[in-house]
Design brief:
This protein is of the alpha/beta class. Helices cover 36% and strands 17% of the residues. The strands form four sheets. A six-stranded parallel β-sheet has the order 3-4-2-1-5-6, with helices on both faces. Bound molecules: adenosine monophosphate. The site of adenosine monophosphate (AMP) has 16 residues, from strand 14.
Length: 399
């Protein structure tokens, strides 16, 4: 990260935290994740001007068409940010308007200013040049620490960076860690490299699976998407989730794996239910032999064991997507077991990246976030990075 001594650092953070009906923060992970960068700026003798979005104010306007400021204002989080940073936080009631300009101009070293929700301006998501130029005037240097929005070419995440030279802009610590982790797995993995891919649909992960088959030694496929593969191979899957139009693609991916010498592991057994609910009757069935009226909601014990063995033999592990409907306690065992195996492998020296919203949620739920090498803060952004796409927020800093 660049040194900010005597400078005003304009920092794009991701403070898009969940709030309850009383506008209290229910999970402050994102604020805590950005704190080291902000604290470093202050310790270096700089001042911090923080920009973030919160929610989707342009999509959820009031009946009269105006922005619902009461709901989406960042004012709700000022006190909490202040307590996490351990310093007072000033607030500007606009993003680049007179209040933000005056408060930014008066800001002294060691002080923090949070400006209003970047998405109150329709130009933010459109990557508006004029808005970005106004944002750039607030700071002497620009730091992007908002990995969660790095895949968006928005004014505050990408376009604004044009106004700073290479020496005047950098990633923050969080962003740096995300980029280093993904690059390590993609470009410099210690072998064997194992990817575990789960989640609901094959269609969401086609690019990821295709790209991974070029580099991994083992590919473990679980979750709902495994049933499209089972169907493609001619099995009975009952009511399990399945994308009929992706069965050819599933076969092509398996063929690619064979040609590349990748060991592909699909579940061999499943925990099945007679309905899509936590309280449905449950049983176990071999893959391809799920009776009519039943659906697979989790991987079975034999699969857990086989997947776990491969995970424990791996030196680098990438995990994206749950092994089952882990939101239902009775069908969370597969996902939880994989989380435990990944933690165990990490303890034994493997490098592990948890790169997806739901698998990160599972790891957090189990209190294992500190037992993996990195749990990504950006679901969509990490997926695109792993697919090999150029992320505008990253490219803008490297330009
Ligand atoms: P994704 O966002 O693609 O990683 O998918 C996560 C979602 O997939 C979670 O909400 C899971 O409940 C869902 N999922 C995982 N396994 C299954 C399954 N066997 N049947 C239906 N949904 C599933």
């Amino acid at each position: 990260m660049i040194n900010t001594q005597g400078k005003k650092a304009l920092i794009r953070v991701d403070f898009n935290v969940p709030l309850n009906e009383e506008f209290q923060i229910t999970d402050d992970t994102r604020i805590r994740a950005a704190a080291p960068t902000i604290k470093q700026v202050l310790a270096d003798g700089g001042a911090a001007i923080l920009m973030s979005h919160l929610g989707r104010p342009q999509k959820k306007k009031k009946e009269d068409g105006s922005i619902n400021v009461e709901k989406f204002t960042l004012r709700h989080i000022v006190d909490h940010v202040s307590s996490v940073l351990g310093v007072p936080v000033q607030f500007a009631a606009d993003t680049v308007g007179p209040d933000a300009q005056a408060k930014a101009a008066a800001l002294q070293a060691g002080e923090v200013l949070l400006v209003e929700n970047t998405r109150f301006s329709p130009g933010e998501s459109k990557g508006d040049e004029e808005l970005a130029a106004e944002m750039a005037k607030l700071g002497d240097v620009y730091i992007n620490d908002a990995f969660g929005t790095a895949h968006r070419a928005h004014a505050s995440t990408a376009v604004v960076a044009k106004h700073f030279s290479a020496a005047e802009k950098s990633f923050g610590f969080l962003m740096e860690k995300e980029v280093v982790s993904a690059n390590k797995v993609l470009n410099d993995p210690e072998k064997p490299l194992t990817a575990i891919v789960g989640g609901a649909k094959v269609s969401d992960k086609i690019l990821l699976l295709d790209r991974l088959l070029d580099t991994v030694d083992n590919l473990i496929i679980g979750g709902g998407m495994a049933y499209t593969f089972a169907k493609a191979q001619g099995g009975s899957i009952g009511n399990s989730i399945c994308e009929e139009d992706k069965t050819d693609l599933a076969l092509q991916l398996l063929e690619k794996g064979r040609n590349k010498g990748v060991q592909i592991l699909l579940p061999t057994d499943n925990k099945i239910a007679d309905g899509f609910s936590n309280d449905a009757a449950s049983d176990f069935a071999a893959t391809g032999a799920i009776p009519d009226g039943w659906e697979g909601l989790d991987i079975g014990p034999e699969s857990i064991k086989a997947f776990g063995k491969v995970v424990l033999e791996s030196k680098t592990i990438l995990w994206n997507g749950p092994m089952g409907v882990f939101e239902f306690e009775n069908f969370a065992h597969g996902t939880k077991s994989i989380a435990e195996y990944v933690a165990q492998a990490t303890k034994a020296g493997a490098y592990s990246l948890i790169g997806g919203g739901d698998s990160v949620a599972a790891v957090n739920q189990m209190g294992l976030a500190d037992d993996v090498s990195h749990a990504s803060t950006g679901g969509g952004a990490m997926l695109e990075f792993l697919e090999g796409k150029t992320l505008p927020g990253i490219a803008a800093i490297q330009a």
